Structure formats: C-alpha cells, structure tokens
Automatic annotation (TrEMBL):
Parts forming coiled coils: 107-134
One record GO biological process: DNA transposition
Record-given protein name: Transposase IS116/IS110/IS902
Domain (Transposase IS116/IS110/IS902 C-terminal): residue spans on this chain: 139-216
Source organism per UniProt: Komagataeibacter xylinus NBRC 13693
Superkingdom: Bacteria
Keyword annotations: Coiled coil
Length: 265
C-alpha cells in the first residue's frame, strides 16, 4: 500500500479511474517510494482500543476544564488539571448551598458524566494491560525506560514489521522525531522535528521521555545522558531528543528480538 499523498503528484490532470491507475503505476516504480505495511485484524482491533481510550481521555479533559470554568464563575476555585477533579467535586459538595438549583443539577450531571468517563477509561486500560501481559514483544519493549504497558502495546499494534525500516533513525523519522532540514542557497539548517507520521505514538514516547527526565539524576545510562543534555538544553528539547533515542532502541529490540540492556543503550 502507498499513502495517497505520495501518489497524488503523479496525477497529470482530472480525477478518473484511468488517471489514478496511471499515477499508481508510475508511483510504484519510483525507487524512493514509501509503502505502508498492512496491519492484521488483531492489530487494528488493538489500535481501536488505543484510539477510543485517547478520545475518552480528551473528552474527560474537556469536561474537567469546563467544570472548573463554570465553578469559577460562582467563585469556587480549584487546582488545574485532571488531578484537581476530586478537589473540584469536594468543593462543589461543600458549596452547594450557594449555588442556584438549576446550576446545581447541571453540575451534578457533569460530575456523573466525568465519573462514567473515568470508569470507561479504566476498563479499556485494563484490557490493554491484559493484552500487553500476553505479548512477549510488548513486555520486552516495556523494559525500556519511559515505555509502559500503554506505549508498548501501542507500538506493537502500530508497527506490523519493524524490518521495513532500514535503521533506527528511519524508524524515528517515521514517527516524526528527527530534525527537519531546510536548505537554500547552499546553506542548510535544521528547523525542529518534522512531526510527520504517527502523532499518537510520538506523543506517548515524548511523555515517557519527560517522565524519565524527572529521574535523570539516578543511576541509569539513559538518565545520565539526559542529565548531561539538560545542562545545555531546555527540558522540552531534551524530552524530544530522548524520545528519538527511545524510538531507535525500540527499533533495535523489534528487529533483533533482544531484551533491553541499559549498558547497550
């Protein structure tokens, strides 16, 4: 399979089946053409779990932000983030008398919806963790610092065959974690990461790298590497750099079948 965006430049004019077929035949002969590996039904089902969980998490965040904003209009202030949800609910119960009856009912409905979302997220996460424990590949990936059951199972589901990538750098580039080059007039400079490819996997790896950086001073080779880089670069830059390194380690483990070793990393 080829991504349509890579075939489109070979369409001469118009939109017909014949023109599309001609463009596909031309594109498939290009030596630099990139192909999309075909996922199995089991992998597609696993990815559906991740996408559903991600959707519910985003919905929960929206509901929490809305609840905080509405409470602030009535003078009830709580901490930011999902972590402040319990505080908001406690304050809501404590200040019920100062709220009008219509507002109180609506707040109760929002809280009930949030609780239902949390329960659904928890159920899906349990399913993902159960499948992670049943997969030897996923368990091996979880041995890498910054990768937990969610990230490991997402990688297994999204990457049917890691050998299609010639190197760890190509795998990291597929995830959009490599610098993007801009060349003009004989001068070349890097303008940040490309952010191409699977944004969900990229986000999971960056979040995991951020967690590793918080423990950068402990005895671990990847953390020592991050600690040294933190002396020169901003934490966000180091998080992306560590996510890039983690992606290369993931590729090595997927292609060789070995387990993670801190010394080899």
């Amino acid at each position: 399979m080829m991504p349509p965006v890579y075939v489109k430049p070979y369409v001469k004019r118009g939109k017909t089946d014949a023109a599309d077929a001609e463009a596909i035949c031309e594109a498939v002969t290009r030596p630099t053409m990139r192909f999309v590996p075909v996922k199995s039904p089991a992998q597609q089902a696993a990815l559906l779990q991740h996408k559903t969980r991600d959707l519910l998490v985003r919905q929960r965040t929206m509901q929490v932000n809305a609840l905080r904003g509405h409470l602030a209009e009535f003078g009830i202030i709580s901490a930011a983030g999902v972590a402040g949800l319990n505080q908001m609910i406690t304050l809501l119960h404590a200040e019920q008398e100062m709220l009008p009856e219509p507002a109180r009912k609506l707040f109760q409905e929002i809280v009930a919806h949030l609780r239902a979302l949390e329960q659904r997220i928890d159920d899906i996460e349990k399913q993902i963790v159960a499948e992670h424990r049943a997969s030897s590949v996923s368990r091996r990936l979880a041995g890498i610092p910054g990768i937990g059951p969610i990230t490991a199972s997402a990688i297994v589901a999204a990457v049917p065959d890691a050998s299609t990538f010639r190197s760890g750098r190509q795998f990291a580039a597929w995830l959009g974690l490599t610098p993007k080059s801009h060349s003009s007039g004989g001068k070349e400079r890097q303008v940040g990461i490309s952010k191409q490819g699977d944004s969900y996997l990229r986000r999971l790896l960056v979040l995991g790298a951020t967690a590793v950086i918080r423990l950068a001073r402990k005895e671990n080779s990847s953390r020592q590497w991050a600690a040294k880089l933190l002396e020169k670069k901003a934490a966000r830059v180091v998080s992306v750099a560590l996510a890039n390194k983690t992606a290369r380690i993931v590729w090595a483990l997927l292609t060789t079948g070995n387990a993670y070793s801190a010394r080899s990393a």
